[in-house]
Amino acid sequence: RASNEKRFLFQSILGQGSFGTVMKAKDKVTGDLVAIKIVKTHSSLLDRILKRRSKELAEAHQEVDMLLKLSHKNVLHMESYYEFRVKLKEVGLCIVTEYCSNGNLQQYLSSNDSKPGRDDCMNWYLQLTSGLAYIHSKGIVHRDLKPPNILITSSNDLKIADVGLAKAVWDLKTESNEAPSDTSFLHYMSSITGTPCYMAPEVWEEHYNTSSDVFSLALIFIMIREAPSPLLPVGKWNERTDSIGLLLYRYPDSRLEEPVSLFSPSFSVSDQKEKLLFNKMLQYDYHKRPTLQEIMTEIEDMRRPRPQELETTSDED
Ligand code: ATP
Ligand code: MG
Ligand code: MG
After folding, report:
1. Does 9 or 116 have the greater pLDDT score?
2. Catalytic residue list contains 119
3. With CB atoms counted within 10 Å of each terminal CB, which end of the chain scores lower, N or C?
4. What pTM, to 2 d.p., does this model score?
């Protein structure tokens, strides 16, 4: 364990998460750059943690062990982890992952000169769908899909990050695996996952399932497609999405056939097929949302050149 701590040369802060800091570091053994997420237990829970530390950490380790087995080109790869101790009482985990030099999707979409073209959008849709399908195939629900949790590599490929950690830390912070109470759940959602922007309506009722990730995925697709645009600045649009899932949950009248219309009049996914797909993915009734396989097929289909783009041949005459 101690050798692990000496193995990495910390260079700078990459991000500040809700439960820790992510540092850029150099692996002295391989020479590679890595990202290290440092997850510390809350000191306000010190007494509880002291009593239950080994069990909670064991559970977190179990979760992390599962993540170590994941391997997909669109899922951030975890390389290793190690436990560390600060002073006598604080315990935490260092989670070592591959380094993504182009930052996160939120940062990308907020910068003005980075609107991806249609083909790039389709490619990113496919990458995210494929990564998420893989995660689901391993029995994991992400629960916290949002642009800051999607990282961009030096070759502009997307990697889904933060997989399973929400649950791992949930286990660390609560005393047991029992279903959380309403208030603790909401507290959890706001403290751990940050803004409830991307949450599906059923999440407000604590029914989180794989289709809830599909709902979040649709919002991310729309962001990729629409932002940044003068009509739809990322910040303002975020405020709008803040309430989409909640709106659908609270107000039956808003459970339209076309949830996309809940955005704003300025919202304009020009492609009808895309709009149709997003509408299906954002349905209130999660049973009706398409599976990732269906989404994949739809995107592949959209990716094919449209008839008017095909060169017309004289054969048709
Ligand atoms: P939150 O719970 O608020 O989502 P978190 O503590 O789970 O945050 P991450 O989402 O994993 O932390 O990372 C926080 C930020 O750090 C990311 O948005 C990203 O900007 C940066 N970051 C994380 N991992 C990497 C990485 N492997 N390469 C480059 N940057 C990274
Ligand atoms: Mg995160
Ligand atoms: Mg997180």
Report:
1. 9
2. no
3. C
4. 0.83
